[in-house]
Specification:
alpha+beta; single chain; Alpha-Beta Plaits; eight-stranded mixed beta sheet; 3 domains; Hypothetical protein af1432
Length: about 475
């Protein structure tokens, strides 16, 4: 070894020794601060045990317990400290870790997933909490993909993909949980139960870059992701739990077919499942807010139209996305009645613009849904196939065998609002309307047109000239 090399080595050792001394001093200060905080914390706990209602900031923040029958938990362990060598700036490394956790939380928010807490270097979040939803297993696995992609891109940005520091192990599991909720201004959720423990076990056996899911999660996401059997994890008193590795998004559902990012087909398929949550929320709103005098424009009519648009839509060869748009428009087409009987289509469209972004509908989809809602305004004048399906479904009862009792509910509704008084005059109006009405789709014509002509004759026999 030359003298120059020897001198450089000595300088490097001196720098490392100095840095080590600084770190030791920093650790000592942190330990002292930790000791002071512990002492203060013990004092507060002691005071709280005597006067639980008088602790500043705790008034009204009693703990309550909530049970969720289906939640999906994600444990993401970010690690890499063992790879930190040489004169790496420790402060910069901690800043990187903060940046990573900040992005993890942002990704969770985008997928309607609740951050629970950070345990050391492990990020814990849960789908289906606090708002219950049916798509939380898919939402969480999709978020796991995005988190993993972010770590890769982060390393490329920071170090060009070489001398990688950070890596990720992920575990996901679906099941029931109990949540202890505290906090007055911001709710804090502490999850308990076997689901939490099993998720932690799955994360513990995971490998760098792997997304491992339990068999429970697998059964709920297998239509969206390609998975391969990974192994088993022992569960106390319950035997072994099967675990799968998620390899990619199904190519036919991914953007560009590469299995990395969800495509339109993925979002549509998920949207058709998420529609169930939307339907539950809207029907609940209609049950509570529709005026009692709406004997025809009630929840039953809405459900009938949702069913009919799907039936006619499939028969007319509509795509999955078109079926989703039709069902959504049908669900919301009479929601405006909660605001006003007049111009209820316009109010329904406004409600759609307000509620649908929360269910991941795109602006373009919302615009089309609003057009479909407005197309149901009488007299019907559809300008395309989807509008024709909406109009035919909305007036499907004209050709059904239960036409007479259904039309009588509409008469009672109009009578309650002083818009119609005489049943005989109503029947005359019905004959005139039905005689001039036409179904626009081939499916509706084949299913309802013949029966509609029979209804005209039935009504005419009830008219007293």
């Amino acid at each position: 070894m030359t003298a120059a090399n020897n001198e450089e080595l000595v300088k490097r050792i001196a720098r490392l020794a100095k840095q080590n001394k600084e770190l030791v001093e920093e650790i000592r200060k942190l330990e002292e601060a930790c000791g002071r905080l512990k002492t203060e914390n013990d004092k507060i706990k002691a005071l709280y045990s005597k006067f639980p209602q008088e602790i500043p900031g705790e008034s009204g923040s009693k703990e309550k317990s909530l049970k969720f029958s289906m939640a999906t938990l994600l444990f993401a362990d970010i690690h890499g400290f063992s790879r930190i060598i040489g004169n790496v700036d420790s402060v910069a490394i901690m800043d990187e870790l903060d940046e990573i956790f900040y992005e993890f939380e942002a990704i969770a928010d985008r997928h309607n997933i609740k951050k629970i807490k950070t345990i050391g270097d492990t990020f814990m979040c849960a789908g289906g909490i606090p708002v219950r939803n049916i798509t939380n297993p898919v939402d969480v696995v999709l978020a796991a993909f995005e988190i993993r992609n972010f770590i890769h891109q982060f390393e490329v940005k920071k170090r060009g993909g070489e001398n990688r520091i950070w890596d990720l192990k992920t575990g996901v599991h679906t099941g029931p949980v109990t949540a202890a909720v505290t906090g007055k201004k911001k709710a804090i959720y502490d999850l308990k139960g076997d689901t939490v423990n099993n998720t932690s076990r799955i994360e513990a056996i995971s490998e760098d870059g792997a997304i491992l899911i339990s068999v429970m999660t697998f059964e709920l996401v297998k239509e969206f992701f390609d998975c391969e059997y990974f192994g088993k994890v022992p569960v106390k008193y319950k035997g072994d739990l099967k675990v799968y590795r998620v390899t990619r998004i199904k190519p036919e559902l991914s953007a560009g077919g590469n299995g990395l990012l969800p495509g339109n087909a993925f979002r549509t398929k998920l949207g058709l499942i998420r529609f169930n949550d939307l339907e539950e929320a809207v029907l609940d709103k209609l049950e509570k807010e529709l005026p009692a005098r709406l004997y025809y424009h009630n929840v039953k009519h809405t459900v009938d139209v949702v069913t009919e648009v799907e039936l006619i839509g499939w028969a007319e060869g509509c795509s999955d996305e078109e079926i989703l748009l039709l069902k959504t428009a049908a669900l919301l087409h009479d929601a405006g009645h909660t605001v006003s009987y007049e111009d209820h289509e316009l109010h329904g469209a406004e409600y759609a613009k307000m509620i649908l972004p929360g269910y991941d509908y795109s602006p373009e989809q919302i615009e089309r849904i609003c057009s479909l809602i407005l197309a149901t305004k009488l007299p019907p004048r559809p300008s395309n196939l989807l509008e024709s399906i909406m109009c035919d479904s909305d007036l499907d009862y004209l050709g059904r065998s239960d036409f007479i009792p259904v039309s009588n509910t509409l008469f009672e509704e109009l009578k309650a609002q002083d818009k119609m008084k005489d049943l005989n005059e109503w029947n005359k109006l019905q004959v005139k309307f039905i005689s001039g009405h036409q179904y626009f789709t081939k499916t509706a014509r084949s299913l309802r047109e013949v029966n509609k002509q029979l209804q005209i004759e039935r009504i005419r026999r009830q008219i007293n000239n």
